[in-house]
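Audit log entry. Action: structure prediction of a protein-small molecule complex. Ligand: pyridoxal-5'-phosphate. The ligand was supplied as SMILES and no pocket hint was given, so placement is left entirely to the predictor. Protonation state taken as written. Sequence taken verbatim from the request; no trimming, no tag removal. Recorded inputs:
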Amino acid sequence: MGKHVPARYGGDPIREEVLGYGGQSIGDGEKQRVLDVLNGDYITRGPTVDEFENRVADFLNVEHAVATTSGTTALHLAGEAAGFGPGDEVITTPLTFVSTAHTATYAGAEPVFADIDPHRRALDPDAVRKQITDDTAGLVPMHYAGHPADIEGLLEVADEHDLTVLWDACHGFGGTWRGEPLGSQRDLAAFSFHPVKNITTGEGGMVVTDDDEIAERARQLRSFDMDYDPPGHEDEPWYQIVEGVGYNYNVTDIQAALGLEQLDRLEEFKQRRDEIIARYDEAFAEISGIRTPPDPVESDPMYHLYAVEIRDGFGCDRSEFVNAMHDENIGVQVHYVPLHYHPLFQEEYGYERGDFSDAERVYEGLASLPLFPGMNDRDVSDVVHTVDRLYSYHS
Ligand SMILES: Cc1ncc(COP(=O)(O)O)c(C=O)c1O
């Protein structure tokens, strides 16, 4: 019997319908909660947003949670509330989504990249040390795929140089590090509730912190930088004052209703993600050309992505792999084109290809396979078989 011929080389695709790499899982509970809000008095920010914030703060064991319209706007509010501003440098990873760097740019600060630790695929504390100057104000590490960055090492650097640490925890909601919820570490963190993330509110995000001032600042900036109850105007209930350039990043009760039900289902989602990951890990252990995601370090992550690295032994390179998977109707994504490859960071800040060798080497192999709780066993088998067949074909 000859080798199975993948669709890219003339065979039939394994699936007729496309399997995405990620996506939401919405049940009757979510629909009912949203309907209840629609039947009530508030559809913009109201009591359901308060309830959602309180639930998230309790779950993460932090003092404050400030809901906002996306992970991007959470990072924006967090960066400004943390006090980043013109003249500051903020060190972050190049292997991330652009919004991580915008934590600095939106605040008028300069994003400075440092190379990654290739195991965790996140900021390397030693590389960070090399980028520190008198202008460094903070760090924005990102927990890639939900795997914690080197939290202890990065906090050590922050202590040495008195830096604020703002975690981009957009990938990691629901995970723990040394038994603590990811995102609860000092000084503050931002989450995303985009549909491909661990829980969703459609679009949405959250700033979390134990710091009262940072939380208060984030809340006021979220809503026009307006003080709705200014001192000295007790007899003028309509009197609001604008203290600076704020935003309308108010999230709606409709979204918060969705989020509350998703929180109730978090354990179910984590369990299903873990089952799929275990199946992938086992299936790919024997394939020499695939580096499966790193084993967790002192943590129980809730993985947002299953990002493998396609290496020489596989028989084809990453681009060929991704295109071949797409031809089988299996969604595969690459997280991420390193930020220093983009015109924005080259033209504005002088970065170029070759600046961060570890991030670049990891990027060359990266491919995120489908991972979301709505995948059934057949979907998972399709991914496993397709990877196996591609490997057999090329080897
Ligand atoms: C690491 C990281 N940070 C920030 C964001 C921005 O989140 P959002 O899409 O909710 O604005 C994303 C989303 O893709 C992300 O992956």
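Audit: result stored. The CA atoms of residues 138 and 163 lie 5 Å apart. The domain at 28-261 is CATH 3.40.640.10 (Aspartate Aminotransferase; domain 2).
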